[in-house]
Amino acid sequence: MTKVERLEKRLEQLSGAGNVWIPSWLSAVGSGEEIAEWKAISRSYRREDLSERRLEFQREMREKYPDMPLTVEEQEEAGVERLRSDIAMQRREGLIREPSSSET
Which sequence spans correspond to the domains of the chain? Predict the structure, then answer.
């Protein structure tokens, strides 16, 4: 067995079966049991149910750990709110069109 194969085997043992991505917000606050629950959700739910169940899990974690880092969904929501409230940002992003001199 090569060093790479041993390393891959060890990483598989550490991460558990099924290569499940653990988000940074969960790594920051989650217990081993909560991480195991995330892995179980990721492995067991059908695609159409997966997103809904993950969001539900994230809401439960936010209630339990109000100071945990923002989830990806929360970061996106914050960005949308910032964009809605900042006219200059909307212009930079091309969401508001500046009238040309021929239109005025």
Answer: 22-92
